[in-house]
Design brief:
The chain is an alpha/beta fold. It has one domain: Zn peptidases (Aminopeptidase). Helix content is 38%, strand content 14%. It has an eight-stranded mixed beta sheet with strand order 1-2-4-3-5-8-6-7, sandwiched between helices. Helix 3 runs parallel beside helix 4 and helix 4 crosses helix 10. The protein is globular and about 65 Å long. Bound molecules: zinc ion (ZN).
Amino acid sequence: MYILLLLSSLLFAQISDRDAYLRWSRHLTSESHPEPNYRYLSEIHLQIAKQIQQTGHTIGPIRIGKTVENRTIWGFKVAPKNTKHNSVFILGGIHPMEWVSVESATNLILHLADHPPAHTEVIVVPVLNVDRRLIVERELSDGSRKYRRVNSGGEDLNRDYEIHREATAIWRHLFPERYTTSSAPLSQPESQAIDTLFQEYQFEASVSIHAFGGYIYYPWAGRYYPTKAQTEFHHLGTLMKQAQSGKHPYHVKQLSHWMFLFRAQGTELDHFYGKYNSRAFLIESTRSGIHWWKRGDWKDSFRLYNPRDPSLDIRRCTESILALIHHYDLLIDNPNWECPCQEHLRD
Ligand SMILES: [Zn+2]
């Protein structure tokens, strides 16, 4: 009996991530819910699993770690068409209310499955805070639209990283609650999984997607002074902005310059650049879904982050990220290629 158990657990440990994902997703079911323009996690994974089966090995699921409640955090690796030269990382669903972030990351996976980049490998983690995301889903279905931000360990996964944890801004004495971090660097299994991923892959560039604001931010978030790569950051950010459809694309800015007294300590943005030298961006997707003339919206924390129709914001986010990936592809194909944005930088 014990030998059988041991054998089966050994077998299970050895099944590939792809098989494990397809097997797991087979048991998912989709239900109707009050946000028809958004997908619940079961719908997202059913769709990705179907795409994986149709497109073969372009997308490979990877188990990047476990959440506090021991759920698998899934990542999806998109292999380039030709020789690999660069790696780009995309992270969504850090905060559980920000569904427009998860939709954009999912959209990107489905798009890249059909149109893989030429030389750039892309790894997308569409939902990091799986535990609390599932709670928000249950609450929406039950008709309660509560505000949620932390993970199941009670920490903000956007303040759980190593770089710039200590606040230095003079304003911290006036508004101490604005400059807080998690209890310790990389205190949560979700953040540890992301840090391990960075050790394994040298991501040239990375984007974490949040809501709301309508900004494409680059480091630093925890210090007011610029990074050494300020010019390059602004250039890449402008490329991402120019790729967006419609009027009034998102603004490009150093995160700490959003407002003179604003800083964010211990963010993934500063960690990805400060520790790993990745060209890191943080997109605050959408300018909110609240209609100020609709009284019912005022207390709706879900609507604050997620417009009723998120299609334009999903599209813009995807366009910006594809432009960044494309940039890394072009760099390989034409080492002397000069981006049109450089002209603008010389002005
Ligand atoms: Zn967020």
